[in-house]
């Protein structure tokens, strides 16, 4: 574990942030006229969440947002990344806005500004309104236009004070886990037939970008989940290329090059209409990367396997609370950033929009001591510094997450926070990683 005198110092100043998401921290699922999302259906279906939890009350940030603002201010964060719940703003995903929901986010924005922390909201973090899903969800092109309408409602209320925006969070995970394999809501198992959801999310991002810029936004971008792909064997180059295509390139290439990569190897094509790629490739002000771990792959087993790779444990790597699925190899973040810098010449500045890890902790008690999390963050921040030195234009680093939260299908069994939350009382208690991150921020400004 790094000592208090061994703080990572980056080669030049960057901004420092921490993140949360609405469904994971707000609780209050029936309060204030909020509608139902695909995740409400998921958590209300027995067996879908490993511990049977429902995201209520959890951190209860709908009622306790001032405590979260104080935690962000005490860290002296430059920015706080939070998400806006589409179902709080438009309970049915269409029509007039819900003033109670917009009032909540307006208070949060005002309190952040008063505390000296720049609000950096995400417009969509997986909570698709249920009526939109029932009308086709991200498989339907119309959802992109509904998202643009929702964006207009939000920026009309908040755009006088909020100037920096994320549009959509992790379209790759929505496509791959939500529609291809069914691991997350809405739980579809479509394999490669899920690929239209990638195009419609990217189109939604482009349409929302135009809405936000027309309203005076200063910076707009998308937060994509990316992974550095490693071969298990020397002859696994084909499997590496296939997984890199599916997880990384399908989501980055259209934004950064204006074209999709060749998908013929998958026997798939995107439902592109005339003009779509111009909308998608409207140059973002930043490109945001959520990074947690590398992915090791090998050639698939079985002659009838429709998937051109197998995902396997990363040899010799320590793991987070998720086990072998989340190996810890910090230098792969450096390698990913340098690969992207070389692959996409002239790409916009990069923001690390999520980076963090879950480790086992007691549910309650004394201040949690979390040396594993400190070591994880330390290694990845140093990897960012190495990437900057080698030429990557990284301008911001964001810890996931500010506070413990509802971790989707894993419920309350995984804790990512710098701040411990007692999920029975919603009480908050900073961990040792919170104090450490505060020192990182302070010493990198000295």
How many domain regions? Answer: 1
Order of helices and strands: EHHHEHHEHHEHHEEHHEEEEEHEHEEEH
Strand content bin: 15-25%
Q: Tell me the major beta sheet.
A: 8 strands, parallel, barrel
Q: What structural category do the secondary elements indicate?
A: alpha/beta
Describe the structure.
By secondary structure, the protein is of the alpha/beta class. The chain has one domain (15-445): TIM Barrel. 38% of the residues lie in helices and 15% in strands. An eight-stranded parallel beta barrel has the order 1-2-3-4-5-7-12-13, surrounded by five helices. Strand 12, helix 13 (371-389) and strand 13 form a beta-alpha-beta unit. Helix 3 packs parallel to helix 5 (99-114), helix 8 (171-180) runs antiparallel to helix 9 (195-214) and helix 12 packs parallel to helix 13. The longest helix has 21 residues, at 237-257. The radius of gyration is 20 Å and the shape is globular. The model has no long low-confidence stretch (mean pLDDT 96).
């Amino acid at each position: 574990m790094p000592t208090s005198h061994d703080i990572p110092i980056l080669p030049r100043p960057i901004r420092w942030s921490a993140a949360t998401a609405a469904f994971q921290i707000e609780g209050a699922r029936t309060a204030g006229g909020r509608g139902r999302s695909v995740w409400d259906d998921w958590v209300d279906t027995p067996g879908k969440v490993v511990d049977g939890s429902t995201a209520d009350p959890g951190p209860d940030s709908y009622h306790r947002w001032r405590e979260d603002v104080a935690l962000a201010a005490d860290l002296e964060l430059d920015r706080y990344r939070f998400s806006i719940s589409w179902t709080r703003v438009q309970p049915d995903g269409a029509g007039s806005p819900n003033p109670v929901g917009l009032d909540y986010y307006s208070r949060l924005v005002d309190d952040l500004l008063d505390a000296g922390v720049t609000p950096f909201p995400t417009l969509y973090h997986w909570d698709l309104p249920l009526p939109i899903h029932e009308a086709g969800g991200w498989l339907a092109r119309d959802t992109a236009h509904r998202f643009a309408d929702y964006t207009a409602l939000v920026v009309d209320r908040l755009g006088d004070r909020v100037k920096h925006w994320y549009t959509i969070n992790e379209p790759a995970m929505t496509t791959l886990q939500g529609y291809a394999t069914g691991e997350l809501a809405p739980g579809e198992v479509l394999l490669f037939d899920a690929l239209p959801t990638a195009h419609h999310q990217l189109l939604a991002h482009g349409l929302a970008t135009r809405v936000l810029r027309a309203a005076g936004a200063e910076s707009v971008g998308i937060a994509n989940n990316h992974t550095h792909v490693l071969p298990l064997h020397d002859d696994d180059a084909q499997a590496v290329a296939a997984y890199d295509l599916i997880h990384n390139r399908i989501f980055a290439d259209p934004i950064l090059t204006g074209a999709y990569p060749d998908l013929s190897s998958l026997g798939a094509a995107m439902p592109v209409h005339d003009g779509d790629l111009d909308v998608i490739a409207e140059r973002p002000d930043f490109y945001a990367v959520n990074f947690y771990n590398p992915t090791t792959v090998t050639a698939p087993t079985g002659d009838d396997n429709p998937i051109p790779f197998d995902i396997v444990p990363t040899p010799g790597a320590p793991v987070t609370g998720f086990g072998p699925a989340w190996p810890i190899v910090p230098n792969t973040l450096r390698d990913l950033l340098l690969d992207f810098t070389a692959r996409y010449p002239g790409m916009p500045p990069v923001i690390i929009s999520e980076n963090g890890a879950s480790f086992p902790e007691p549910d309650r008690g004394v201040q949690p001591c979390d040396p594993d999390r400190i070591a994880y963050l330390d290694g990845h921040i140093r990897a960012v510094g190495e990437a900057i030195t080698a030429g990557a234009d990284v301008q911001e680093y964001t810890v996931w997450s500010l506070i413990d939260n509802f971790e989707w299908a894993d419920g309350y069994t995984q804790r990512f926070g710098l701040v411990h939350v007692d999920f029975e009382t919603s009480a908050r208690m900073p961990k040792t990683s919170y104090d450490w991150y505060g020192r990182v921020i302070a010493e990198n400004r000295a």
